[in-house]
Amino acid sequence: MSSRNGRGRIRVAVLRGGRSSEHEVSLASAESVLRALDRERYDPVAVEIGRDGRWRELGSAGPEALETGLERERLPVPVASAPAALGAVDVVLPVLHGPFGEDGTVQGLLELADVPYVGAGVAASALCMDKDLLKAVLRDRGISVTRNITLRDGDPVRNEFGYPVFVKPARLGSSVGITKARSEEELVAAVALARRHDDKVLVEEFVAGIEVECGVLGNRRPEASLPGQIVAHGSGAPDWYDYAAKYEEGGMDLIVPPRLPEATIERIQGLSVDSFVATECEGMARVDLFVREDGEVLVNELNTIPGFTSTSVYAKLFEASGLPYAELLDRLIELALERHGRRSKLVY
Ligand SMILES: Nc1ncnc2c1ncn2[C@@H]1O[C@H](COP(=O)(O)OP(=O)(O)OP(=O)(O)O)[C@@H](O)[C@H]1O
Ligand SMILES: [Mg+2]
After folding, report:
1. Which of 39, 120, 171, 292 is surrounded by the most beta carbons within 10 Å?
2. Between these two residues, 200 and 234, which has the higher pLDDT value?
3. Strand 10-17 vs strand 42-49: parallel, antiparallel, or unpaired?
4. Distance between Cα 47 and ligand 1 center (Å)
5. Angle between the 325-343 and 23-36 helix axes, to the nearest 10 degrees?
6. Domain 128-145+208-331 and domain 148-205 have a common topology
7. DSSP conformational letter for 143
8. What is the CATH number of domain 148-205?
9. Would you kindly state where each structural domain of the chain is located, as residue ranges?
10. Is the distance from the beta carbon of residue 179 to the nearest atom of ligand 1 less than 6 Å?
C-alpha cells in the first residue's frame, strides 16, 4: 500500500465524537478501538468531531495521548480540510453513531477523499439510518418487519395499532426520542418528543415477545455471529431497552445464544444476513430483531455502526462466536481495504 509509513504499519484514522446525541457513546467506542488496535500492525490517529461539527486531530494517539487531550491541529471547515487530512491515512474507521456519522454523510466525504473506510457505503448507511425507508426495502425483499405508520411534518397524530405502541424518530439511535406510549395522551406527547429529533416519526405496532440481536460481518459473503437475547432492566423503563438500559452498568444482560430452538436461531441468522445483503451493507452491521411469542421472527432495524466498545453487543456476539475483538478489528480493516481495491478498478 502506497502510503503505509516507514515501518510498514497501516495508518488508521479513528473518527470519533460527531454531531449527534450519540457523541458520548462514540467516544467510548473509539477509546476501546484505540486501545485494542495492535501497534505492531497499525499506526492509529484519532480525529475527533465536536458536537459543533468541528474536526480536530488528536495526533497519533495511543490512549495516553487521548487522555491528555493533546490537540495538534484544528480543522474548522470539515469539507475543505478533512479530505486533505484524511488523505494521508490508509484507512478510516468511522466510529460515529447516528446522524452526521452513521447516515452516509461522513461516508460520502470519505468517498470524495478516495480513502478506504470501514463499514457500509453511502447508500446502505443512509438507508439503514432511516427506519421508514429501511422497512420499505426489507418488505420489498420479503423480509418481515414490524408494522408502522409514518408521520411526516405537519401530519396529524394517528395510531391504528391500539396500545401500547412505540413512537420513534425515523433517523436516530440509542433509543433517544423513543417512547412506549400506553394511551392517546401519551401518544401525543411521544410524537411531540420524537419530532424534536426528526421531522419524520414512526408509530409502530408493539411486538410482544423477546428481543434478539445478531452481528453480521463481511462484504460479498457476509456471515452472521451467534445471536444474543437482550434482557433489559434499566432504571428508566424496565420493560424495554431504553437509553439507561443500554448504557447503565448492569442495565441489560446478553444471553448468547438465546434459549430458543435451533431452527429459530438459524432463522435469526439467515434473516440477518438476508437483511444485510438486501440493504447492500458492507463490512459490519448489527441486526436487531424480535421473536414473537408464536416463534415468528421480525426484523426491527439494522445498525451500520453499532456500539463498538469491547463489551458492546456486537463485539460480544463475535467473541462468543470465536472471533476476539482485536481480530474483529483486523477483519474489518481488511474488508475496507478489499472493497476500496475492488472499487478503484471500476470505470466511471
Ligand atoms: N415495535 C416494538 N415493539 C416492542 N419493543 C420495541 C419496538 N420498537 C422498539 N422497541 C424497544 O425499543 C428499543 C429501541 O428501539 P430501536 O432499536 O428501534 O431504536 P434505536 O434507538 O435505533 O436503537 P439502537 O440503539 O439499536 O440504534 C428496542 O430495543 C426495544 O426494546
Ligand atoms: Mg436498536
Report:
1. 120
2. 200
3. parallel
4. 30
5. 100
6. no
7. -
8. 3.30.1490.20
9. 10-117, 128-145+208-331, 148-205
10. no
- The number of the ligand nearest the C-alpha atom of 241 reads 1
Residue 318 is placed in which grid cell? 463475535
Strands 10-17 and 200-205: unpaired
Q: How far is the CA of 289 from the centre of ligand 2 (A)?
A: 8
CATH class of 128-145+208-331: alpha beta
CB of 306 sitting under 6 A from ligand 1? no
State which CATH number among 3.40.50.10330, 1.10.10.10, 3.40.50.20, 3.10.150.10 fits the domain covering 10-117: 3.40.50.20
**Pocket lining: 229 vs ligand 1, CB cutoff 6 Å:** no
pLDDT at 66 over 80: no
16-57 confidence digits (pLDDT tens): 999 888 899 999 999 999 999 999 999 998 888 888 888 877
Report angle CA 207, 208, 213 to the nearest 5 degrees.
Answer: 70
- Distance in angstroms (rounded) separating the CA atoms of residues 166 and 181: 6
Q: Is 247 in the pocket of ligand 1 (CB under 6 A)?
A: no
3 state SS of 216: strand
pTM strictly above 0.90: yes
